[in-house]
Write a structure and sequence with these properties.
By secondary structure, the protein is of the alpha/beta class. It has one domain: P-loop containing nucleotide triphosphate hydrolases (Rossmann fold), CATH 3.40.50.300. The protein is 29% helix and 28% strand. It contains 6 helices and 9 strands, in the order βββαββαααβαβαββ. The protein has helices spanning 41-48, 82-87, 96-105, 121-133, 151-164, 177-183; strands at residues 3-12, 15-25, 30-35, 56-60, 67-70, 139-143, 169-173, 186-191, 194-198. It has a 6-stranded mixed β-sheet, with helices on both faces. It is globular and about 50 Å long.
Length: 202
C-alpha cells in the first residue's frame, strides 16, 4: 500500500514549517525527498514516524507498519560496541556472524570490542545504517544517511542499502542529486507552499 501524505500542516511558535503538504510514496520503492534547508523535510519525517503531531492533515498507509529510522544524529549507545548496538534492535534470528558480515559489506573493520564512542564519524554512521537495516521493519526512513562519506564509500554503502531494502518502502532525505541517481530512486522536491512529485523509481 502506498503511503499518502495529505494536506499536512505544522507550525512552531507561530512559524509555519509545513503548509498544506501532500505527496505519495510508492510501496516497495525508494523515494528521495529534496528541498532547501529549513523547508520542513525532517519535520515531515518526524510526523511520519509519530515523533511529532501534525497540526492538521492525515498520513495514510502507515497504520500498523513497523518503521525503522536513521536520524541525522547516529543515536548509538556510546559505551556499547557496534555489534551490541545492532543486536539490541535486530531480528532475533540474526547471528553475530551475520552482523559481522554486514558490517564488512559496509567497509567496516577494526571496530570489534571497541565502544562506538571511539569510532570515527563515518564508521559510526555506517553502524547506525546497519542497525536500521537489520531491524524488523516495513518502512525505512533515513535522514541524510550518507552525509560525510566520500564518494567511493558512499557508493559502497548505497549499493548495500539498495540490496538490503529490495521490495521495501524506503524514504530518504538528501541534498545530493548524485545520491538519488545512485539509489535509482523516485524524487519528491519540497518547495515553499507545495511539494511536487517527480517520477517513479527507475
Amino acid at each position: 500500500m502506498d503511503i499518502k501524505v495529505v494536506n499536512i500542516n505544522k507550525s512552531f511558535n507561530g512559524q509555519k514549517v509545513l503548509d498544506n503538504i501532500s505527496m505519495t510514496f510508492k510501496s516497495g520503492n525508494i523515494t528521495c525527498i529534496m528541498g532547501a534547508s529549513g523547508i520542513g523535510k525532517t519535520t515531515l519525517a518526524y510526523i511520519m514516524m509519530g515523533l511529532l503531531k501534525a497540526d492538521s492533515g492525515n498520513i495514510i498507509g502507515l497504520q500498523g507498519k513497523k518503521i525503522a529510522a536513521v536520524f541525522q544524529e547516529d543515536r548509538l549507545i556510546e559505551h556499547w560496541d557496534a555489534v551490541k548496538n545492532i543486536m539490541l534492535v535486530c531480528r532475533r534470528d540474526f547471528t553475530k556472524d551475520y552482523i559481522h558480515k554486514n558490517l564488512k559489506e559496509l567497509g567496516l573493520s577494526d571496530y570489534e570490542n571497541k565502544p562506538v564512542s571511539s569510532l570515527s564519524g563515518g564508521m559510526r554512521r555506517r553502524v547506525a545504517i546497519a542497525r536500521a537495516l537489520l531491524s524488523d521493519y516495513d518502512v525505512l526512513i533515513m535522514d541524510e544517511p550518507f552525509k560525510g562519506l566520500d564518494f567511493e564509500l558512499k557508493k559502497q554503502v548505497i549499493d548495500y542499502v539498495v540490496k538490503m531494502t529490495k521490495g521495501k518502502t524506503v524514504i530518504i532525505i538528501t541534498h545530493d542529486k548524485d545520491e538519488v541517481d545512485l539509489l535509482h530512486a523516485g524524487l519528491i522536491t519540497m518547495e515553499s507552499k507545495k511539494a511536487e512529485a517527480g517520477g517513479d523509481r527507475d
